[in-house]
Design a protein that fits this description.
7 helices, P-loop_NTPase, DNA_Partitioning_ATPase, Rossmann fold, alpha/beta, single chain, CobQ/CobB/MinD/ParA_Nub-bd_dom, 7 strands, 18% strand
Length: 213
């Protein structure tokens, strides 16, 4: 059962946007999806409460991140939305659950620095003796990107230092805001309305669908 962790210790980088749309994509692919919300703000859980019942079901999961537990039976895929400031025991617990860790970041100096430090902590987990047989795949996704801006150019210049695959940018658009307000994802509306966004998601979808070795 793949467990996908969406994580970055910095707040406001788009974790819930990424987590809910990943859950929606997987649900439309026919998987039994559970969306766990470890964030105290409960953004993903509130989003689930808005989701229309006729759409592919996404099950919620009340999980506080303090104890390593297996997801309930009958679920094929788990997506975990995590809080700002993720560190310490909670990070270790979620790390043990995860098969894939996606790190969203915005093209700003503060996001780059926070993500660089966070990746360092994840690589420290790699080196722990008890983790030698469990190493989640890591990847980065640029959020709210505006093409042709200096900030995007700076992030692209810095990416090689982050030591993780980069899956591309998701543009800064009101599509995500308007859909989230109705409990929807890109996959819940006519493709023509969000064609450009779906194209940007193709590398991320391919990475998610690739089986973890």
């Amino acid at each position: 059962m793949p467990v996908i962790l969406v994580a970055n210790p910095k707040g406001g980088v788009g974790k819930s946007t990424l987590a809910t749309n990943i859950a929606g994509m997987l649900a439309w692919a026919g998987h039994k999806v559970m969306l766990g919300d470890v964030d105290k703000q409960q953004s993903s859980r509130r989003w689930l409460a808005l989701r229309p019942p006729h759409l592919p079901q996404i099950q919620g999961w009340d999980f506080d991140g303090h104890d390593t537990v297996k997801p309930p039976k009958g679920v094929s895929h788990v997506v975990m939305d995590t809080p700002a400031g993720l560190d310490g025991k909670k990070l270790k617990t979620l790390y043990k659950l995860a098969d894939k860790i996606i790190i969203p970041l915005q093209p700003s100096l503060f996001d780059i620095q926070a993500s660089f430090d966070f990746l360092g902590r994840l690589h420290e987990q790699f080196r722990q003796p008890e983790q030698t047989k469990h190493r989640p795949e890591l990847a980065l996704v640029g959020m709210r990107a505006k093409e042709g801006t200096l900030s995007v150019d700076q992030l692209q210049h810095f990416l090689p230092q982050l030591n993780a695959p980069f899956l591309g940018f998701l543009r800064d658009t009101q599509n995500y805001v308007q859909l989230a307000a109705r409990g929807l994802t890109l996959w819940d509306v006519a493709p023509g309305r969000v064609e450009r966004d779906l194209q940007q998601w193709q590398p991320l979808v391919a990475w998610l669908e690739r089986r973890h070795a």
